[in-house]
Amino acid sequence: MTIEPKAFRDAMSRFASAVHIVTTDGKAGRRGVTATAVVGVSDDPATLLVCLNAASPQNHFFGENGNLGINVLAAETGQKVAQVFAGSSGDKASDRFANGEWGVGETGAPLLADALVAFDCRIVEARRVATHHVLLAEVVGLRLGPDAPPLLYHARGYRLL
Ligand SMILES: Cc1cc2nc3c(=O)[nH]c(=O)nc-3n(C[C@H](O)[C@H](O)[C@H](O)COP(=O)(O)O)c2cc1C
What we know:
The strands form 3 sheets. A 7-stranded antiparallel sheet has the order 3-2-6-9-10-5-4. The protein is α+β, with helices and mostly antiparallel strands. It has a single domain (18-156), classed as Electron Transport, Fmn-binding Protein, Chain A (Pnp Oxidase, Chain A). Helices cover 16% and strands 45% of the residues. The longest helix has 11 residues, at 75-85. The chain contains 3 helices and 12 strands, in the order αβββββαβαββββββ. It is globular, with a radius of gyration of 15 Å. The structure holds flavin mononucleotide.
């Protein structure tokens, strides 16, 4: 049996997910995207996995730069930033970083000052799976932010815990 893409997306809307801004910077250019498809893989070495839609041409920047920032958003401050980095505010992709206070990690990846936690990562493997780039990234630095409630996404809307 083949599952229709819409049926799959409807099923996925039942997931409650944390919301992240995943970022990169380097020779290919600077890029930040709102993403829920982020998961921990291993603690030794500390490794995370991120899935990015290959239909966005600028998502190639991640693999080309080789670095990846993963910024976990707080409920209080995250929603506006999430909307901007999802492209729903009408801002040009290059202007997204005017929202929020951004620093830079050792790898060169942009890190958000008020993230609940910001991971500075190097991409160690990239694989195309169907419509998405699947990136495996080793964490080389992490910055813990406030111990505050996270921003969530569920049933196609932002939710507060
Ligand atoms: C809550 C939420 C979660 C998202 N999760 C992902 C994701 O995990 N991977 C992805 O590639 N895009 C995800 N997107 C879509 C991207 O944020 C969006 O397509 C992208 O920022 C558009 O940028 P572009 O117009 O520059 O391509 C998500 C969007 C929202 C609103």
